[in-house]
Amino acid sequence: MTIVKSKPLARKRTPAIRRPTDKKNVPNPNTLYKKLVEHMNEIVWMVDDKQYTMYVNPKFCEITGYTLEEILGKYSYTFLDPGSVESVGEVEKLRKEGVSSSYETNIVTRSGERIPVLVSGTPIANGWTMGIMTDLRMMKQQESIYRKLVENMNEAVWMFDTHQRTIYVNPRFCEIMGYTEKEMLGHDCLDFVDDESKKIIQKEDAKRVKGISSSYEATLVSKNGLFIPVLISGTPLPDGGTIGIMTDLRELKRKAEKERVLSGAVSYATDGIIIADHMGNVESWNKGAKIIFGYTEEEMMKKDLHNIFSKEDIESMLKNTKVRYNFELRAMHKNRQEIIISATVSALMREERHGGSFFLLIARDITAQRKFEEELVVKYHKMRDAYNQFGIVRRQMDYIFDLADICCQSRDLTHITDFIVNSVTMLTRVDACILRLYDEKKDTLELASCFGVTDEWRSMSSLPLKGSIVERAFLQGAPVKIVDIMREPRYPTPHLARKHNFSSLFSIPLTFQGKLIGSLGLYVCPDKKLELFENEFIEDYAKIIGIILSRAQKDAGDPVLPVLKE
Fold first, then answer.
1. What is the four-CA torsion angle of 246, 250, 251, 255, rounded to 10 degrees?
2. CA 240 to chain centre
3. pLDDT in tens, 459-494
4. What is the CATH number of the domain that holds 474?
5. Looking at residue 222, which CATH number applies to its domain?
6. Number of domains in the chain
7. Strand 324-332 vs strand 43-47: parallel, antiparallel, or unpaired?
């Protein structure tokens, strides 16, 4: 093994520092210090051992408004406010012991303004003191702004020290808790929360000791024993304490509970409630929908509705933004049997501007109801045949002859309409009969005569033909039979029907030569609905009534409809 000796490194020679030889160019340190003090942004104030002013820099004169001559030799307390004199006197004792200190005080200007300053006082030779002061006005102004912000916050602010004793609460916290600030200061923070929250706060306090911020829910207990849920955002303070900013969760909790109840009501409703997106894909499917259509929620979520409704019906639902109530719709059950539903559809807009809309479909299965109505019609025809065998025809013919006689002997339209109402009531045994005449100019149905209703009903003297049950009956050329008035969306006055205990309606259009003359509305209570629909003669009788009313209106000149008597 060969050992190679390295050469010794050459030492670098440090260049000699050249000292100036011209003493005229060397600045005087005392001059530099004086310029520094006179141009400082801080205040410099020197007093002797008797507290008389020996020196102030220009900044002191600028702030107080006094000249240097007015200040020198003056007693220092002359420039302090009365509230600061006592605290400065305490500090003066420390200064005589050679102890430096910092404290806040207020300087009084020539105009009487009090200027807050931070004083850093240092003892110097001969018992003198030099104070360097910082103007705190800007800081105090910012502090005032922050205090106003905290005191007017909608959130509650709670500060406590390292021993969890309350040292500050803002007005919002007092408002929520029902305590005054005085009642809370100095108390353990755990005195104002429930037992469960005490455990949470103690656990979170361990994090705070390590300087870790956190957010958590807790429950406050107010002065009157009210439990208040809050969200606390806790942050450690430099001195080891904690500041907590709390948001009152009561309103949010109430909304969440309301949404939970509504969600439960929708989930367990017997009506089918379906929410689909703008493409017809299912977003929500409740248990009622499963009962009606046979598909489970898992089978339908994110699937389109083409297995249930026709393409045309789905497109109609997607395009129409208006609410449509209780219209009939045919659908296909999972077992491939056709069902009839009464549907209500409305559009639901997204909160986002650029998102597509949803639509809500509420469906009620009316297949059994339609089947019952069909069976009712069959039974009606059978019972009608039975009535014909018991001489009802003779009584019916008597009314026809009487009506013809009245028409021949009288031109009083009121007399004729009253007889029609009375005869129809006797022939059908209904609980109420309403006769209306059609006003072609107004396109309205005007009340001509009635039986079995109160004056409140009589006040509905004029009804529009458009969209009415009578229009439907006229267009289809046959009377409309409504088994349950309360389930008929076109019926205009369900509240009056409810007051009279009417359950079923037989609406007959009165026509002559293809023109609408008027209508007959026959009402019965629940125990008479079969009798109403089993009278075949009334439809034929209505044809005769149409002819007679047309002739009577022509004879009367049809200037004005009759006025009902009380």
1. 130
2. 41
3. 888 999 998 899 999 999 899 888 888 888 888 888
4. 3.30.450.40
5. 3.30.450.20
6. 4
7. unpaired
